[in-house]
From TrEMBL:
SUPFAM superfamilies: Acetyl-CoA synthetase-like. This is medium-chain acyl-CoA ligase. Residues 313-344 form a coiled coil. Belongs to the ATP-dependent AMP-binding enzyme family.
Length: 394
């Protein structure tokens, strides 16, 4: 039996249980299947494949290839792009093949610093590609981009490759002109000379488009191998996720988001990649759009079939702005506000006043019990040494 077949056998029971939950026809059946999922995961523990999310995506791509997985909407206007599970799987595999080809030549254990906007589909595709290739993914939001921030990440996170787009190329070049450590080929590469030079973003995308849509270079990574690195916003210390911790975090987040009803289209705003892709474990479609103001938020609810909203405290607080609220109330007098919203989530604690305000606006309660959910006695069946090593992303 090959290593690859062993990995598939160790992953398949959990993937099967996830799909049983999705296909449940009643609340009682759903709860039963959720309990079976918890039991299976607790029993297998470290045996779970590090590539669980990719295996789930591949299953969706095979069984329901046309099912929508990602809906990207531009910040301005209503232009949007939809990707199916088949699209997501193939494009992430092509990226993984590009990173490991002769030109880029990245090898397992090396670190990729990704400097792209939160609403860029390439961010989540790059994460999936890194998981496939055994690379370590380091996200950096351009909204907080500084020379010092880039150089510190290159140094503290042991970065081997920097991927960014044309908009942020100049500051990245300036920050890595005299690199603190050698960088492998990426959008920023180190040629024979000492000075770094860019590889065109269009060139990278062309390489991806020409790459094979199946990734065949299986990497045998163990439970404790790092998969994500980042710097905390509080003390600038490094935070690292290993494969086992990532899987557990994905499972717990997915259970939290799906404990009442599986979202069909969930608007993930200002959430980290791990929380976002957890939605795919149960087949939800992810919606991406930046929120400039309250009017943008309400307009989006009215014009897209979003049934679940998950965002940060800051975005929920927009509803407290009395001036915008009054303007919106005037608009609502002319046109009744109709949305598909059925669920509201926040990974941060929401005060009672704000909850009341949102309830009056949507007739929905905000679920902000993520931390409490992780400490639920039902989850005690998870191994303690795994359960208590979940780092928090700031």
């Amino acid at each position: 039996m090959t290593i690859k077949s062993i990995r598939r056998l160790s992953t398949k029971p959990v993937v099967d249980k996830l799909f049983n939950v999705v296909q449940s026809s009643s609340c009682n059946e759903r709860q039963t299947q959720l309990n079976h999922l918890l039991d299976t995961y607790a029993q297998q523990g470290k045996a779970i494949s590090h590539n669980l999310i990719n295996d789930v995506l591949q299953r969706w791509a095979v069984e329901q290839p046309k099912r929508e997985a990602l809906w990207m909407c531009e910040s301005e206007g209503d232009e949007s792009q939809k990707l199916t599970f088949d699209d997501i799987h193939k494009q992430s595999c092509r990226l993984a093949n590009t990173f490991t080809n002769r030109e880029y030549n990245l090898t397992p254990g090396q670190t990729v610093l990704v400097i792209l906007p939160n609403n860029a589909k390439e961010r989540v595709l790059l994460l999936l590609a890194c998981l496939q290739a055994g690379l370590i993914y380091c996200p950096y939001d351009p909204k907080y981009l500084t020379d010092i921030g880039i150089s510190e990440r290159v140094r503290k996170l042991s970065v081997n490759c920097v991927i960014t787009d044309e908009d942020h190329l100049e500051i990245v070049q300036q920050s890595t002109g005299t690199p603190l450590r050698p960088l492998k080929k990426g959008l920023i590469m180190k040629p024979s000379t000492a000075k770094l030079s860019p590889v065109s973003w269009n060139h990278l995308i062309q390489q991806v488009n020409n790459a094979e849509s199946k990734y065949t270079k299986f990497v045998n990574m163990n439970h404790n191998t790092p998969v994500i690195r980042l710097l905390s916003n509080n003390n600038n210390n490094g935070i690292e996720y290993c494969h086992g911790t990532l899987n557990l975090h994905l499972i717990l987040t997915a259970l939290w988001l799906n404990s009442n009803k599986t979202p069909r289209l969930i608007w993930m705003n200002d959430q980290n990649e791990i929380m976002t892709i957890a939605s795919w474990l149960f087949g939800s479609s992810i919606f991406y759009k930046e929120i400039e103001n309250l009017r943008t938020m309400i307009h989006t609810f009215e014009n897209y079939p979003i049934d679940t909203f998950c965002t940060t405290l800051t975005k929920y607080q927009m509803l407290e702005n009395e001036q915008e609220q009054e303007q919106e109330q005037e608009q609502e007098q002319e046109q009744e506000n109709k949305t598909n919203l059925q669920q509201l989530f926040s990974s941060e604690t929401i005060n009672s006043k704000l909850k009341t305000l949102w309830h009056s606006f949507t007739n929905l309660d905000i679920r902000d019990d993520y931390i409490g959910f992780r400490n639920n006695p039902k989850l005690n069946k998870f191994p303690n040494h795994i359960q208590h090593t979940i780092p928090r992303i700031s």
